[in-house]
Specification:
single chain, alpha/beta, Rossmann fold, binds S-adenosylmethionine
Length: 361
């Protein structure tokens, strides 16, 4: 069946309508005429396979990976990078407008590398097959290499294919629980292991950290919520008299404690546990709160407690625009948006990182 693709949805799938019913088409670009086959019929929408492209978009390129459309890692290998960035900008604008009534023309900072940028891969195994997961499925696609990860991870993958995490700092590799890597940001060294959170794209995270450092005001007390191995607490330690971090993951917390000692930082204290349960332990007046939650965003309890603290400044870092919009809708009653910037932390995928600077009204 021949269809014309109207636009892309938030996951990067082509959208067309068949007798008024929305149909999502994989590997499709706006304006293209495609011969499709419907592979799943749901009540409200269909999913279709791209059988043949009759009229190609000028923004289409040849995917560089043989596993593309098989493994679930990439969404945009068939699109020029400028077009991917335009899509991400548009997606953010639409989500913030639709779910938070925020109208903002967001700048997106590109990644200097769009392939071989990831410092981490997670391999899965089923019935002896080791590889990456298919999209929205538990099926494994066996891989020999991945175009998104740094080359030394691919070299390791060729020699030793095992389920689990492989992580690198560009030179060394770790794969086991008790192994550590050092990563330098500014003059500080951060120790991480496979279980602790760390941003996966060094080409973009430097830009994001610098942006936050340059835009945060110098003040007395900072709260670093969802602090991981303590990156924000440590790189901002000379801008605040006192900093408190809260982190739920034991490995990240242990590394954060190690990192303050190792970097001779004396004004930071970390709490192990949830933001929800630990915020009440901090009794001082707080000037600034950094929030960097997982994709689920803020729970009702943490959002309420943060608003009750009434810091002068909030910096919300988000890897999911939908939960960011949900939370900003409430925060913006009392805070005005000073700036909102996107950082392309995940090139060739539909994911995007956002930083929102907010000031108490
Ligand atoms: C997106 S990461 C941010 C880490 C850190 N800010 C960084 O840039 O490296 C989110 C962190 O929140 C932690 N986390 C998840 N839920 C939490 C909760 N309810 N309370 C405290 N920490 C939580 C995770 O373990 C993870 O380290």
């Amino acid at each position: 069946m021949l269809v014309k693709i109207e636009k892309l949805n938030h996951q990067g799938l082509g959208i067309t309508k068949i007798n008024g019913k929305v149909t999502f088409v994989e590997n499709a670009l706006p304006g293209e005429i495609i011969d499709i086959k419907i592979i799943r019929e749901k009540k409200k929408y269909n999913i279709a396979k791209n059988i043949n492209i009759i009229e190609k978009s000028p923004n289409r390129i040849e995917p560089i990976c043989k596993y593309y459309n098989k493994c679930g890692g990439c969404d945009f290998l068939h699109i020029k990078y400028e077009e991917e960035l335009r899509f991400k900008k548009e997606k953010l604008k639409n989500i913030l407008d639709k779910y938070a009534n925020i109208n903002y023309d967001i700048e997106i900072v590109p990644s200097d590398k769009i392939y071989n940028y990831r410092n981490k891969i997670t391999l899965h195994e089923t019935n002896g097959v080791v590889g990456l997961l298919k999209k929205q499925s538990n099926e494994i696609v066996e891989i020999e290499h991945c175009k998104l990860v740094e080359e030394n991870i691919n070299i390791k993958l060729k020699r030793e294919k095992k389920p689990g995490i492989i992580r690198t700092n560009g030179n060394e590799i770790i794969m086991k629980e008790k192994e550590y890597l050092n990563i330098q940001i500014d003059k500080y060294i951060f120790r991480i292991n496979i279980n602790s959170f760390f941003q996966i794209n060094p080409y973009t995270y430097y830009k994001m950290f610098n942006y936050i450092k340059n835009n945060i005001s110098k003040n007395q007390t900072l709260l670093d919520l969802y602090c991981g191995v303590g990156v924000f607490s440590i790189i901002l330690s000379d801008k605040y008299d006192k900093i408190y971090g809260i982190e739920i993951n034991k490995d990240s917390y242990k590394n954060a404690i190690f990192n303050i000692k190792n970097n001779n930082i004396n004004n930071v204290k970390f709490f192990l546990g949830s933001v929800e349960n630990n915020l009440k332990k901090i009794m001082e007046r707080i000037d600034t709160i950094i929030i960097d939650p997982p994709r689920s965003g803020l729970s009702k309890s943490s959002l309420k407690q943060i608003l009750d603290i009434r810091p002068r400044e909030i910096i919300y870092i988000s890897c999911d625009p939908l939960t960011l919009a949900r939370d900003l809708k409430i925060i913006k009653d009392n805070y005005e948006i000073k700036d909102l910037k996107a950082f392309d932390m995940f090139p060739r995928t539909n994911h995007v990182e956002c930083v929102c600077l907010l000031k108490l009204r």
